[in-house]
Amino acid sequence: MRQDTSGTITTLGAPRSRTGMPHGERGCGTLGNSVALRQDGLPVQANGFSGLSPQQQEAHRAKIGVRAQAILDQFWRDNETPDAVRAVEIEGWMDVLENCSHGEIRMAWATYQKEGPRSQAGRLSKPDAGALYRIIHRHRPTPKPVQVPEPVRDAPRVTKEQAAKILEEAGFRPKQFGHHGRQAGVEKNGQY
Predict the structure, then answer these.
(1) For site-directed labelling of 121, which of 104, 144, 146, 160 has its Cα 20 to 30 A away?
(2) Residue 115 domain-assigned?
(3) Which residues contact 77 (CB under 8 A, 6 or more apart)?
(4) What are phi and psi of 36, to 5 degrees?
């Protein structure tokens, strides 16, 4: 095992982050992707937070909590604030930012430090999780609508005659209306 200048630890297998997790897994700055299988056996790509295992989701949220605490500790706080209140505040940050990668959160915090609101004395205002969330979404690429092509039929549609023949061969006889000289909805003498 060796550690390079970027903090990446390399073992016999894949490169790992400082947390010891393979790159692309929670804890290394990205949310990563996992591959699930559909019922027909084809792979389905699950992206972002929902693509992580419950253990990875918990670790991802915990790292967001640590980062949020580090951000908030830079601002004045009343020492009399109960730990439970502080925990609820951190939990709110985790709830708001759980669908964001650690790289996005770091970028948003750097942007906030450069461009965030300041007091008249020039001090940076304390952020809330929503401020970072808005910065992250402002920097994400706009999704492009996917054009779904019309399905191409290899065989022609079935005609009425072909459908009637198939039903007859299967022994199915649909009820017919207007039978015995009557039309549907018309009485014998032509009155309704």
Answers:
(1) 104
(2) yes
(3) none
(4) -110, 165
Mean pLDDT in residue range 30-52: 55
pLDDT exceeds 70 at position 67: yes
Question: Count of residues for the chain?
Answer: 192
Average confidence score pLDDT of the chain: 75
Widest CA span in the chain = 99
Residue 56, domain member (yes or no): yes
**Which residues form the domain of 111?**
7-139
Element housing 47 (H / E): strand 43-47
Instruction: Assess if residue 85 is contained within a domain.
Output: yes
Residue whose pair of structure tokens reads 């779904």 in the numeric block: 148
Contact 25, 56 (CB under 8 A): yes
Domain count, the chain: 1
Number of H helices, E strands in the chain: 5, 5
d(CA 125, CA 47): 34
Between CA 44 and CA 49, with CA 48 as vertex, the angle to 5 degrees is: 110
**Tell me, what amino acid is at 154?**
D
Query: SS3 sequence, 78-94?
Result: CCCCCHHHHHHHHHHHH
Angstrom distance (rounded) from CA 135 to CA 140? 9
